[in-house]
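Subject: design request, 197 residues
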């Protein structure tokens, strides 16, 4: 059995502005650093074997902050890079809607390519880390592609808006993937504080 805890990276300034990041390499902002720290504190209550991260700095920073609280090795995997949104990167929702009302962004990585890429990444984890507990730090479109593939489209791409630093858990057992939960945010203080108001 392999357990994978999928973590969307912490917030960046572009996230807070609603800009599409894609492959643009934006660092975490102050809130994102705090979110990553809260992920690490939450995950420290269990035993983990390793962290796999996208090479983009917002994911790597999140992974490194988690590792500072859980002393396990980090490995980068390009299979989990964020989707390339082509000409729409850096645009807000309003700007994208005005420029591309059909939501077809020139030079964007197509969904089939994204899905194949992340499935290959999962296969590599299965082959390399049998019977391990893995933390995988990646991006919204990547995690949604994984969730969509494993649920036959019931959740994930086009259906689920993943929050920054949310946690989703998947398990590979007896040659089958199962989603235990997804888009969990109870470990993040900003949501518990909102609940109090």
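Subject: RE: design request

Done. Sequence follows.
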């Amino acid at each position: 059995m392999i357990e994978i805890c999928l973590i969307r990276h912490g917030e960046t300034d572009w996230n807070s502005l609603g800009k599409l990041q894609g492959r643009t390499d934006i660092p975490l902002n102050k809130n994102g650093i705090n979110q990553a720290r809260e992920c690490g504190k939450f995950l420290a209550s269990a035993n983990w074997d390793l962290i796999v991260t996208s090479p983009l700095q917002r994911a790597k920073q999140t992974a490194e902050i988690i590792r500072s609280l859980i002393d396990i090795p980090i490995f980068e995997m390009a299979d989990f890079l964020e989707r390339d949104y082509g000409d729409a990167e850096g645009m807000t929702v309003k700007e994208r809607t005005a420029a591309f009302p059909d939501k077809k962004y020139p030079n964007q990585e197509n969904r089939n390519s994204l899905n194949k890429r992340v499935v290959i990444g999962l296969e590599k984890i299965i082959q390399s880390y049998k019977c391990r507990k893995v933390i995988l730090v990646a991006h919204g479109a990547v995690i949604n592609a994984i969730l969509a593939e494993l649920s036959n489209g019931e959740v994930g791409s086009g259906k689920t808006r993943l929050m920054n630093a949310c946690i989703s858990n998947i398990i590979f057992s007896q040659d089958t993937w199962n989603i235990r939960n997804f888009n969990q945010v109870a470990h993040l203080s900003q949501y518990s504080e909102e609940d109090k108001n």
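The chain has a mean pLDDT of 95.
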